Amino acid sequence: MQLLEQLLTLEANRIHKNIRLGEDVVQALLGSVTYGNIGQLKSNIQLVCAQGFLNSMHNKNEITLLFSQLPPNIKDGLSNLASDRRELGNLSRLLEATMVIKPDAQRGTPDIDSYELPYNLYEIIGDKAALLKEDGLDQAAINHFIMTDINLHLKSFYRQGKLEKTIDGLSEIVDQEIIDLTKQMQRLLQERENYPVRDHFIYAMSLHISSFIKRIQSGKPLRNISADLISMVHDYPVELKIAERVKELIRDHYRFPIPESEVYYMAILLVSLKSEPKTGKVGIVVAAHGDSTASSMVHVVSQLLSVDNIAAYDMPLEMSPKIALAGIAAQVKKIDQGNGVLLLVDMGSLSTFSNKLIEKTHIHVKTIDMVTTAMVLEAARKTALIDSDLETVYRELREFDGYSRTIEKVQQKKKDVQKRSDQRAKAIIAICSTGEGTAKRIKDLLDKILVDHLIDDITVITVSLVTMNEQIVKIQQDYQIVAATGVVKPQVAVPFVSLEDLLQGGGERFVSLIEEIDNHAVHEAEALEHSELLTKEMAENYLGQYFTFINPVKIVKVLWGYCAFIQQRSKSKMSNAFKISLIMHMAGALERNLTRSEMSADEQRLAQVRTEKLYPIVTQANEILLETLNITLSESEVFYIVELLRTEKEKSDTQKN
Amino acid sequence: MDVRFLRIDSRLLHGQVTTNWAKVIKVNRILIVSDRVAGDRTRKTLIIQAAPPGIKTNVVTVEKMIRMYHDPRFDILKPMILVEDAVDARRIVEGGITIDSVNIGAISFDATRVMVTDAIAVNAADVAAFKWLHDQGIKLDVRKVSNDSSKNLWKSLSEKGLV
Fold it and tell me: Which residue intervals define the domain PTS EIIB type-4 in the entry (chain B) (predicted)?
């Protein structure tokens, strides 16, 4: 109900008029959609408001929505709702006979979502109506004409709603106009030329067009056609013909001539898109003894990583292996996306199933035993993004021995790596048809992520599809290629991430797969929090190390009590890590008091802090210090204690969101 | 890279930095430069957890700090750099990082050191490093928090007859 009001306000804001509607219209609107379908509700509201706008065009201040004027499918909503008497009863109590929704600046337009119309529908109606009127059509005919138009438009728009979401990432770097043009191309090529194009066509082609147009607009010289390119394209007459069509479409759309060289580049792009069938991810099936061991592991991992290529099979102890085999085979079939399945098992007969499963399902299966949650997590991570094949994942996972490696092991590993690897610097290659457009953008994107994680020893190198193989050989003389991305997967045995995945926010994950970035920081903080390390003894240790005049053993007990008091009074849980930092800070405050070198703060801040909620709690806690140590801290020291607590609270609040 | 602030403090990132410096100086990154901490997981995790909200914090080695400083890709960073002692501060400046003042918060007393101010203790290596920094024309600004009145460490060292 509140939602409906909000959506109506949105429309009212758009047209700057009040919207008046009766109880029956509200009921019909609510009844016209299935429960929870907000997109549909929004679409229906936009439809009736557009209609109301049309009918009330003479009224400057208000539009009225009448039940009698509603489209039939929305009218049906009332009877839908009526069939649920209780719902109707509840609703009627909430409703007034007539509702007036006013434009409300405060509510404003919420964040644009994929169901939000990209332009102002009402302006279009206004313009179109004026136009038709000039043509001498009567009002009824105009209304009918425009309604049909709107209806069609809204329908197609919301049908696309789902697809839009996945293209969101793309629209951040490519103009919507180009994406639309590419989609139109996809449709035309499929329908008229009978040329199959997959979804990643949209990514690759729109990026290509966008960089091409940028190039033209910036007045840069056009690319020349190399002999290599011509001879290569010659082998693909079909793609050349299609590229010719694409060129015409771009030319017609932008109304400027497209150089012949572009046709060749686009043909190459099409060839590469075709030669790269999108294989699915490697599937994972976890099978373990016990009523829920496997499913709880899988549950944890899917919650952490939101992956869809993982299934569980629980094998209670009394279950016969035969039944288990059949059950696992079913899961393997379910999860396979054509790229094989990794079976993670705990022990016993389960570890011998590989061959039987291959026989039964004709799916490539590899088994690893002694499964742990960490291993499932790692398997999901490895298979989630990169089109790595089953063998690679299998090999890497066998070497996996948990996240919480000791430092020695990590150092050992680093040494091994150094021994194995040569002196070559690391590089990621980004591939597009020219090596100058899309690849450059990918480079920018990845560079940004690399910088963000302070990774300075990986270079991103752009590569053109035309001379890809030669270039890669050349790069390998100076660099060790650690990963690849772009429009096509090169013949190099390194992780590859497709353009779609990269643009859909896979950049972070991509980099984290190549380099152990501090993504683990969160895990580590948590591990540390639950470890036995953060104790009074550790605080004592640090106190001894950093302070000169206070006695750590005696003072730590007092300050531990101080933390407990604040925690209890402020009713918010303190992490052990923060407790240590607060103890350190307090010890500093005590030492500064003893050496008469307290910190200063200006009057304005001191006055401000007295109004803080935490202020009285800190002053009460300071009573403890007075009682036990006969020390009174200055007001500015109190200010810094409150600030420290407040900053910590702010941080935990932002983390929760 | 535009280094906004360089501070020497044995405790690196702690209350004085989170509640005060990180708020008064406009930085988009806190870099803790210490070979010791980079190899000490517990300390590293504790320090990163003490970071103020909204500012990314990393622990890097001195060598990496210098490498990044000279890499134009990192030009967008406007960091505050925290080091444990004067020797590391000197290594960073020797590595080419430009700065006209070094802030000194606290340097813990230990058996090798003597107290020169209420919070700063130095040993022979520290004195040599401070002397080098002073000779480069870099101001040695002693303040725990921004509101404290600034004292010149060079003066304190001179008064103590250490330089």
Answer: 1-163
